[in-house]
Q: What sequence folds into this?
């Protein structure tokens, strides 16, 4: 017995050293990981307004709603991979699960435009409500949901026929939607500061909850944790989508328009027009804000590539605001033509 005790004590330093090596090689928690930073700036050019973006990670493509066009960018090079032009005021892009078609909410045309993802050719135009804005593909029912910003309704389109199959009245003006992969669709109702849940099979509203913050715009979803992340000015509302309970409202930047979630890193992102990317640790108690990365004024929409852990932000340079008039007492600064840029953020 004494001999065994001596041998065990002598081995302790070696065991401790081995354990130290093991623990230092383990991934650090999200809050301790290297912060995000701007890796590149891709000058896309062109003028006009822009809206939502979407990444197709397998095809290495970034789709950007940009005025009357959807820019398609190769994420490996930052160069153009084509475009879908001849539209009337684009807002969002959705992609089917078969890898065949994409869908554009063409707000100025009151329609959803269907395109071939290989050729980028337009193959159908489906009438929607007034100014379709947020759009999402629901995989269980193979339907496309376009949320109409001026008619306070949702247009549901069959991906099998490219025809409208339902119009659903909403309790207010909608913003960005999300799906849970189980046949439920969620959407921010920005004018009433609520979240609506829909059954994609019955095409009916099944719940309406307080959003937890005022005027929610962008929405992200964590399907494993059953949480929604809705962004408002200076707040992100974290909601349990099984119950509608608000779990937390961490602080973010001002003027957000998009939210994204990283399942791998348990992080929620908010792109804010004031010029910051806010990062929230969704794996920590209280959902603390862990980073506010300075980006660029106007960078309020984004896309996230989960495979590459890359965030893409759209913005431009702005000139001075025009003089106020009786018709437009609060004029906005206009983007300088040719300055449209994508910021690439990573670690």
A:
């Amino acid at each position: 017995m004494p001999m065994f005790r001596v041998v065990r004590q002598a081995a302790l330093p070696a065991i401790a050293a081995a354990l130290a090596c093991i623990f230092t090689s383990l991934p650090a928690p999200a809050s301790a990981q290297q912060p995000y930073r701007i890796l590149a700036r891709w000058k896309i050019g062109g003028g006009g307004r822009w809206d939502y973006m979407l990444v197709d990670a397998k095809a290495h493509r970034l789709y950007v709603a940009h005025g009357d066009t959807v820019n398609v960018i190769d994420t490996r090079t930052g160069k153009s991979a084509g475009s879908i032009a001849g539209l009337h005021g684009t807002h969002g892009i959705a992609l089917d699960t078969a890898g065949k078609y994409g869908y554009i909410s063409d707000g100025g045309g009151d329609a959803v435009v269907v395109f071939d993802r290989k050729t980028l050719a337009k193959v159908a135009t489906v009438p929607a409500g007034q100014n379709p804005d947020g759009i999402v593909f629901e995989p269980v029912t193979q339907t496309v949901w376009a949320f109409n910003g001026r008619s306070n309704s949702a247009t549901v389109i069959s991906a099998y026929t490219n025809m409208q199959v339902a119009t659903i009245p909403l309790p207010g003006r909608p913003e960005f939607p999300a799906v849970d992969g189980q046949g439920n669709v969620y959407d921010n109702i920005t004018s009433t500061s609520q979240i609506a849940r829909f059954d994609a099979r019955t095409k009916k509203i099944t719940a309406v909850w307080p959003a937890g913050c005022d005027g929610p715009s962008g929405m992200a979803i964590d399907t494993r944790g059953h949480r929604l992340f809705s962004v408002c000015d200076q707040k992100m509302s974290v909601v349990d989508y099984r119950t509608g309970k608000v779990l937390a409202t961490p602080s973010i930047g001002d003027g957000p328009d998009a939210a994204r979630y990283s399942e791998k890193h348990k992080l929620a992102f908010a792109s804010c027009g004031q010029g910051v990317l806010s990062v929230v640790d969704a794996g920590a108690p209280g959902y603390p804000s862990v980073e506010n990365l300075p980006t660029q004024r106007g960078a309020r929409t984004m896309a996230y590539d989960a495979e590459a852990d890359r965030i893409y932000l759209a913005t431009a340079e702005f000139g001075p605001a025009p003089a106020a008039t009786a018709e437009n007492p609060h004029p906005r600064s206009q983007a300088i033509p040719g300055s449209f840029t994508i910021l690439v953020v990573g670690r």
